[in-house]
Amino acid sequence: MNRLLRVIVLVVGVSVLPGCARSIYEWGSYEGSIYDLYTDEFNLQRNIDILTREVEKTRDTGGVIPPGKLAHLGYLHSLAGNVDAAVQSFEAEKAAFPESAKFVDFLITRVRATRAGGAGQP
Amino acid sequence: MNGTQLSILAALVIPVSGCLAPVDYSEYLTRFPRSVLVLPPLNDAVEVEAPDMFMSTVTTPLAERGYYVFPIAVVDQVFKDNGVPTPGDMHQVSHGKLREIFGADAALYVVIENWTTQYLVLVTQTTVTIDYRLVDLSSSAVIWHQKQTMVHSSGGGGLAEMLVAAAVDALVKAFVDPYRPLAIQANVTMFNDSHRGLLTGERHPDFEKDLARAKQREAKRVAAAQ
């Protein structure tokens, strides 16, 4: 079993521990992706695909996307050089959580600058 | 991993309870943060991978308490891209600067104080101690400061219990590093502790009810201290 899947199994496992209250958010692989990011086996496109699919599913089923997940996905898009997709995810984070506005605006300016300047990492 | 095995694992993770004197929540109630910036943890433990593992264990329990939690990996990268490469450096950044960049109400400073595993003849014991400090970024007031120690012990009971524990541990190790579930348990237990944990945040459905109760409890504590 690959690492991300192992983490997903773990996260799902922990969330169904007896005695835990019902979750506010649908976490999916958000923290699994954070875990992944700090390993040598991190696969950017796989992470983008999985998180994108989860976000769509949460929206379709009327669930609540957790704080940070869309900004995290936006960051992954920026690493892949997808400026438009990154901005879209950042905007979605801000719409869902106005508390994030200042930081998200900073991230949007930053990722747009990479396209304008065309140099360096986002 | 099935439910029974998980229950057994959960039962083996024991929080080490601290002092029972009522906690002072006056500053917390005054400042009451809506958003929390978790800084990458400082590591005082020998285990070098502890901070990286911890990064993926704190967002879920904190957000489920009702707070907006900034995207921790993105936060980490923004620091690194701006000449602040280590958690030690990040913990030194002024509160005003953190507020200016992130727009956060509060910052959570985490120090991993201990993260060790003892291999004995029939028992493997892992101990994790984490120090948590929640600071209001406008006033620099420390609004919550707690420490949590968790001990995960395999074996130590009767022979049957030991065999079950050994089997469970073998399974967990096959899935992930055994440290991560322990860090998750430490965070969940600490944030949800009814006497010394975090107060229920604004995004939680029980916010109003719990806030009224917290105010009552604080008034009682103040009255008792006089």
Spans of chain A of at least 5 consecutive residues whose pLDDT stays below 50 are 4-19
Helix/strand/pairing category of chain B? alpha/beta
Please, how many helices of chain A? 6
How much helix, percentage-wise, in residues of chain B?
40-55%
Indicate the proportion of strand residues of chain A: under 5%
Query: Any idea what the shape of chain B is?
Result: globular
Report the major sheet of chain B: 7 strands, mixed
The profile of the biggest β sheet of chain A is: none
State the end-to-end CA separation of chain A. Answer: 32 Å
Average of the residue pLDDT scores of chain B: 85
> What is the string of SSEs of chain A from the N terminus onward?
HHHHHH
The count of DSSP E runs of length 2 or more, i.e. the number of strands of chain A, is 0
Counting copies of identical and different chains, the oligomeric state is heterodimer
- How large is the share of residues in beta strands of chain B? 15-25%
Instruction: Calculate Rg of chain B over CA atoms.
Output: 19 Å
Give the rounded overall mean pLDDT of chain A. 85
How many helices of chain B does DSSP assign?
10
The unreliable regions of chain B are 1-11, 156-164, 167-176
Query: Largest interface, counted with CB-CB under 8 A?
Result: A-B, 41 and 41 residues
Structure description:
The complex is a heterodimer of chains A (122) and B (226). Chain A is 66% helix and 0% strand. Chain A has 122 residues and is mainly α. The model of chain A is unreliable at 4-19 (pLDDT under 50). In chain A, helix 3 (44-60) packs antiparallel against helix 4 (69-79), helix 4 (69-79) runs antiparallel to helix 5 (83-96) and helix 5 packs antiparallel against helix 6. Chain B is an alpha/beta fold. In chain B, strands 1, 2, 3, 4, 5, 6 and 7 form a seven-stranded mixed sheet that branches. In chain B, helix 1 packs across helix 8. Helix content of chain B is 44%, strand content 23%. Chain A binds chain B through residues 1, 6-7, 9-11, 13-18, 21, 23-25, 27, 30-32, 34-35, 37-38, 66-69, 71-72, 75, 93, 97, 99-103, 106-107, 121, and chain B through 1, 3, 6-7, 10, 34-35, 52-53, 55-57, 59-60, 63-64, 66-74, 77-78, 81, 101-105, 175-176, 180-181, 184, 203-205.
